[in-house]
Amino acid sequence: MNCTNMKKKWKKFLNRIREFDFQKFLSGLRDKIVANKKGIFVAIAAVAIIFFVSFLIEYFGFGRHLNIYRFRFISAVLFLIVFFFVFRRKIGERPEVAFLAIALICGTLLIISESKEFVSWDEGIHYKRVERLAANVVPGMYFRPNFVRYSLSIDEQAKIDKKVDSEYKKPKTKNSTDGFSYKGMAYIPSVIGLAVGNLLRLPFHIIFNLGRWFNLLAYAVVIFFAIRKLKSGKMIMSVIALFPTAIFLASNYTYDSWVTAFTMLGLAYLFSELQQPEKKISISHITIMVGAFVIGIGPKAIYFPLMFLLFLIGRSKFESEKEFHKFLWVSVFSISFVAGSFVLPFFISGEGSGGARGKFDVDTSRQIQFILAQPFEYAKILVNFLKDYVNPLNASGFTNFFAYLGMTKGFYVVLALISIVTLADKNRYDKQTSNWKIKMSVISVYFVTAALISSALYLSFTEVGKNTIDGVQPRYLIPLVFPLLFVLGYCFNIKDKLNKNIFNLIIFCIMAIIILNGIWELIIVKYY
C-alpha cells in the first residue's frame, strides 16, 4: 500500500473512465434486457397482478368504495408478501436485500400516505433549507408557502393539491438561496429530489414527496452497503435501521437519517477491519471508513466521539510503521475538523441571553458559570438525567415514535427482537470485537456522547441552574445504539444452531408488521 502503487491504481482508474464506451454500454444493456425479457415480463406481470388484486380487495372488501390510501397500503402489504416468498431461501445470507425492500416499500408508503403538512420534528425548518439549496440548481423555482392546508377528506385533499399545483404553474420570481456547506451535505438527496421534480415540471405535491423519497433512498442504499460490509451483526444493524422511528425520519425532511446511515457505514467498515486482524487494510477502505464518519457526522458534529473508535485499529493492519502513522494523522485531523465544526461555532456564537426557541431564561454564558461554580451539582443533574435517558425501557421514543403523528404499537416486541438479535446474531468473527478493550471503548464513547448531547442542550436550551435537562430527544441515541449492541453478547453464540433463513425471515416479518401497523393506525384509517 505505497504511494507508487496508489498512483498506478489511480492512473488506471482515470484511463478506464476516458476509455469508457457509452454506446457499447447501451448495447450491452440492451442485450441483457433481450436475454432476460422473460424475467422482465414476469416481473411486470407480477406487479400488475398485485395492483389488480389490491384493487379487488379494496373495492369489494370495503363496501364497493375506492379509498386510494387503503389501496396503496394493501399493495405494499402484497409486495412484501411476494418478496418474502420469493426471497425466503436467500434471506439468511443476504439480509441487506430484505432490509432494502422493507425500508423502500414501507418508507414509500409513508411518503405517499402522509399529509403534505410537516409531520416530523423540525421538518419545516429542514424543508426550507432544502428549498433554498435547490434554488441554486433550479433558479426561480416555486417556493412552498409556510402553511399549506391539508384535509383527511380524500376529495378535499385532491382540491388542495390542485390549488397548490396551479400556484406552481404561475410565473416564477427570484427567491433567496443558500450556499452549500459542510453541514448542508445531508440535504443533498432531498435537494436532488426537488431539483429533478422542478426540472421535469411535475405537479408540486409530487415534487414535495420526491424530496422526501430521495432522502429515504439515500438512507436505504447507504445502510444496504453497510449491512453487506459487516462480517457479523447484520441483523443487529437491520433491526436498528428498521426501527419505525428510523424509517419515519428517513421518509421526511431531516438530516437525522443521513447521520445514522453514514455513521453505520463507517462503523461497518471499522468493525469489519477489526474482525480481520490478519488482513492488511487498504487505502480505499480507509477512505470510505473515515470519509463516512466525516460526511455523516457533519450535520450533527456532537457525535464526533464516535470517531475515536478509529484508534482501535492497530499497527498490525498496516504494511509499515510509516503507513500506520499516516493513518493516525488522518484520523487526528478528521476528528479535529469535525469536532471543530461543532465546538467553535457553539462557543463563538452561543445562544447569549434570551434564548432558545422563545425561552427567555436561557443564557449559555450564565449556564457555563453555574456549571463551573457548582461542578458536583451539575454532575448530579447530568447523572440523574442520563439514568432515565439511556434506560432501555424508555427507548420507545427512538424505536416506535412517529413524531407529531403519535406512538406506534409494538415497543416491547421491538425491544425483545433487538435483544434476541444482539445475543444470537454472532459468529466466529465476533471474537475479535468482543474483548474488554473494545467493549469498554465503545461503552465509553456511548456514554460520553450521550453526556455531550445532554450538556449541549443544558447550555443552549435549559433555564439557568435548572435541576433537569430540556430538549434532549430520544432519537438522538439512534446513531449510538448499533456500536453498543454490536460488541455485546458474544458469549451467547447461538445463531449457528439456528436456520438462518427462518430466523431472519421471522425477524424481518415482525419488523415489517410493526411498521405497517403504525402506518395503518396513525395514518391510513383516518382518511375518508
Q: What topology does this entry show?
A:
Blueprint: H1 3-18, H2 22-35, H3 37-61, H4 68-86, H5 95-113, H6 123-137, H7 154-168, H8 188-199, H9 204-229, H10 234-241, H11 244-250, H12 256-274, H13 283-297, H14 321-349, H15 364-373, H16 375-389, H17 396-399, H18 411-424, H19 436-460, H20 478-486, H21 500-522
Helix pairs in contact: 3-4, 4-5, 4-21, 5-9, 5-21, 6-8, 8-9, 9-12, 10-18, 12-13, 12-20, 13-14, 15-16, 19-20
Number of domain units: 3
The rounded distance between the terminal residues' Cα atoms is 63 Å
Note the total helix count.
21
Largest sheet: none
The low-pLDDT segments are: 351-358
* Mean pLDDT across every amino acid position: 87
Listing every helix as H and every strand as E from the N terminus to the C terminus, the arrangement reads HHHHHHHHHHHHHHHHHHHHH
Helix proportion range: 55-70%
User: Structural class, judged by helices and strands?
Assistant: mainly alpha
**Tally of strands:** 0
Q: What fraction of the residues are assigned to beta strands by DSSP?
A: under 5%
Principal-axis shape equals globular
From the alpha-carbon coordinates, what is the Rg to the nearest angstrom? Answer: 25 Å
